[in-house]
Design goal:
Elements lengths: L26 E6 L5 H8 L3 H5 L2 E7 L20 H4 L3 H4 L5 E12 L4 E6 L11 E6 L2 E4 L3 E3 L7 H4 E3 L3 H16 L5 E6 L3 H14 L3 E6 L11 H13 L3 E3 L2 E6 L3 E6 L2 E6 L2 E4 L3 E3 L1 H4 L18 E2 L2 E6 L18 H19 L14 E4 L5 E5 L2 E5 H14 L3 H35 L1
Parallel strand pairs: 1-2, 1-6, 2-3, 6-18, 8-15, 9-10, 9-15, 10-11
Antiparallel strand pairs: 3-4, 4-5, 7-16, 12-13, 13-14, 17-18, 19-20, 20-21
Helix pairs in contact: 1-10
Bound molecules: flavin-adenine dinucleotide (FAD).
Flavin-adenine dinucleotide binds next to β2, β3 and α10.
Length: about 450
């Protein structure tokens, strides 16, 4: 099958004035969602030297004003990293590029008329929360708004359980932890729901943050944690959880959550446990308007695409990241991860570029590069091809791999400079401490 795409008719875009100085109306490329799928597609499009000189307008829409580099979000719990390092603003990331950032909430897409309905954040100087309605018209569309957390199935979860996906979630958790740490309670009881990678990583970080005062339990419905991970990573995770005295409750489901307790169901019995904090890491679902798009979806509401990442009946629309179904060559579904979205972004950018140039599009091939998990402060497990490591060295490798994945060279260098500075300051403090200790010992 040939997925060659006919160049659609250029249209007028009603987003802020196009920055291009070309003669005709620019080709409008609209990218919805500034995460691993969307932002990286926009940035990769900049890589093509001829693309810059073309009469193209890239508009990136996101409801937030910053990226969240989720694999490093846990480091905020233990203060190993600061928010600016993992959540650079889109303004900064798109500086000196031809990408125009538009902060607003996408409310729907009309695939027939090629229009996107956005509620745009009012421009600077205007007060209030009222959003300006805006219609964007596209020639090419990239759908990459990810998925949203599902908390409404369990009584009390929406009110009392904390999700952990955004910087706001991390800030709320920090506030809650500070309140608990400064209180006079002898122990802090935390329940982390979900034995997937997020649950395991969060449980280890929380145990390290709360140290002897923390009583962390990990609640898993199945018989195993990290089901989709290799036995090596799973064994390392079990060791890390055991070393941090995290209690794992297998075959246990959550029945309800209240302000100070969680009700669990295990082996036919209800268990009512007092808790100070509940963290929720399981269950996502497609965003409403994505689920309602008149195209093919799988049973979980994810969009089904061609191997070129195009929607089946809408070749000018590309769908990637958590909102799209992805299969391996044997037809088995691959879990949605940043690694997949990041590689899809590369393919989507290439295909948009090829479509504009009237060339045949390429199929997406996922290459599994391995797996990495943070297992407490400064520690990790890395399993990639023949490399298998755990502990501090794995922690350093993981951080440097992610440093290299951060968007834009400028941001990477700023983060690297900060790390080197922190390392030098730490080293200097150790040297000073050593000198003082020696002098004190000599005096004695
Ligand atoms: C805490 C955490 C840790 C993770 N760690 C890892 C890891 O270590 N390795 C890994 O491979 N994967 C990891 N993941 C999974 C990974 O983050 C996702 O698979 C990946 O982000 C998916 O990319 P995406 O572009 O589809 O969506 P996202 O990165 O979620 O981006 C979607 C963007 O769309 C925006 N958006 C959503 N709805 C709207 C709307 N209506 N209007 C405007 N904008 C909207 C959002 O603000 C967001 O910026 C982790 C996820 C979490 C939550």
């Amino acid at each position: 099958m040939d997925y060659k795409l006919e160049r659609p008719r250029p249209r007028q875009n009603f987003c802020p004035t196009p920055t291009f100085k070309g003669s005709d109306t620019p080709t409008q490329i609209c990218i919805l969602g500034g995460g691993f799928g969307g932002l990286y597609t926009a940035l990769y499009l900049q890589r093509f030297p001829w693309f810059k000189s073309q009469n193209c307008q890239i508009t990136l829409v996101d409801r937030k004003d910053h990226l969240v580099f989720t694999p490093l979000l846990y480091e905020l719990v233990t203060h190993e990293l600061q928010p600016w390092e993992i959540a650079p603003s889109f303004k900064k990331l798109t500086y000196n590029t031809t990408i125009q950032f538009c902060q607003g909430i996408v409310r729907g897409v009309d695939l027939e008329t090629r229009q996107v309905k956005v509620e745009k954040k009012p421009s600077a100087g205007r007060e209030g929360f009222e959003l300006d309605p805006l219609v964007l018209v596209y020639d090419y569309l990239v759908l990459a708004v990810g998925a949203e957390m599902r908390l409404d199935g369990i009584p009390g979860a929406t009110t009392y359980a904390h999700p952990f996906r955004t910087i706001t979630d991390a800030e709320r958790l920090e506030e809650q932890l500070r309140l608990l740490e400064t209180s006079n309670r002898p122990e802090i009881r935390v329940a982390v729901v979900g034995g997937g990678p997020s649950g395991v990583e969060l449980a280890c970080k929380l145990a390290d943050r709360l140290r002897g005062r923390g009583q962390v339990r990990l609640i898993e419905r199945g018989q195993e944690i990290l089901k989709t991970f290799s036995p090596y990573s799973r064994a390392a995770a079990y060791r890390a959880l055991k070393a941090r005295r995290v209690q794992i409750d297998f075959e246990t489901s959550v029945e309800s959550i209240e302000s100070d307790r969680i009700t669990l169901f295990r082996e036919g019995q209800m268990l009512d446990l007092p808790v100070d904090l509940v963290l929720w890491t399981v269950g996502t679902r497609s965003i409403d308007w994505v689920r309602n798009l008149p195209c093919r979806h799988n049973s979980q509401g994810q969009l089904i695409t061609l191997p070129t990442l195009q929607l089946i009946d809408y070749p000018e629309v590309f769908a990637l990241g958590d909102l799209a179904e992805i299969q391996d060559p044997r037809g088995r579904q691959i879990p949605a991860t940043a690694q997949v979205a990041y590689q899809q972004a590369d393919c989507a950018a290439l295909n948009i570029n090829r479509a504009i140039a009237g060339k045949r599009l390429r199929n997406f091939h996922y290459l599994h590069m391995g797996e990495m998990l943070t297992l407490g402060k400064g520690e990790a497990v890395v399993s990639s091809f023949a490399l298998k490591l755990e502990g501090r060295l794995a922690g350093i490798i993981r951080q440097f791999v992610y440093l290299q994945r951060l968007p834009t060279v400028r941001h990477r260098l700023q983060v690297l400079r900060h790390w080197v500075w922190q390392w030098l300051t730490g080293l200097w403090q150790q040297v000073v401490r050593l000198i003082f200790d020696r002098r004190r010992r000599r005096k004695l």
